Hints:
Blueprint: H1 8-20, H2 23-30, H3 34-48, E1 53-56, E2 59-62, H4 64-91, E3 97-103, H5 108-121, E4 126-132, H6 135-143, E5 148-153, E6 162-167, E7 172-177, H7 189-195, E8 201-204, E9 224-227, H8 230-238, E10 244-247, H9 252-257, E11 260-262, E12 273-278, H10 284-297
Parallel strand pairs: 3-4, 3-5, 8-9
Antiparallel strand pairs: 1-2, 5-12, 6-12, 7-10, 7-11
Amino acid sequence: MAKNPISIEVLETLDAIDRRGSFAKAAEELNKATSAVSYAVQKLEDQLGIALFQRQGRRSVLTSAGRLILVEGREILQATARLANKAKEVATGWEPRINIAVECHQSYPAFFSVLGEFLKAHSTVEIDVCESVLNGGWEALEQGWVDLIVGSPGPVPLQKGYRALPLAHADLVPVVAYHHELANIAANAEALQGRLAEVRRVITHDTSVVDITRSAGLGSDGKHFYVQNIDQKVEAIVAGIGVGHLPRQRIENQLNSGELVELALYEHSTFGHYLAWKVSHKGQGLRLLTQRLAAVFGEM
């Protein structure tokens, strides 16, 4: 197989000529003689059997074929630059990718704001986010599917080699749709308790696959309606299918408009929520990211 004549060096040469507008200025930027730049271009043209530049007055302008090579070549130059940066970061303790499972009750605007600020400072690190529910986050961490969990409920599994930081409690609100039968007695705690056993609960599936799944909130008695995520749960409750707990910050508009009605049920979660990762994970990116997340979501 013939050797590919398009090298990183010649792509850098074409890029410099196009940006600077002449062989001489490109040579100055590349710290080469003008004759060396001209020779590199002529050699590539001879090897490919095409013209890459044409003269327009005093400027050297790319032909359509030359433009194609440069446009796609710049993508290669960017990719090689990213590869070099990633290699340097890995060599100095920076991981190229961080996988995160975020509990569905967390504040997504705050969460993604932290990730955005982190990526501004460390743009070569890739982030992969998935949503977890109840045991699902802990299972994902144990199985190595994610490097970090944000907001998974306790208790923290023992003897797993986890570092866990307690987070501020999410403000979960028991609600129904304004047209649901319970809405008329929403402020009457005693009456509500007497009716809960007969009312359908809307429940988000535990994302655990291997471990024993669990549910939380209004108990396990009565009729159930299962959904996959919080967005589906919001829509199911708004539709009047049943009752359930939702994060206040996710439904403020519906509460303010009266579309959803808060129930006078004062149940509190027994367990806290945690930011957790394996102590064996020594990546610099994970260390800095957990510090940023703990500063925003940590217990006050």
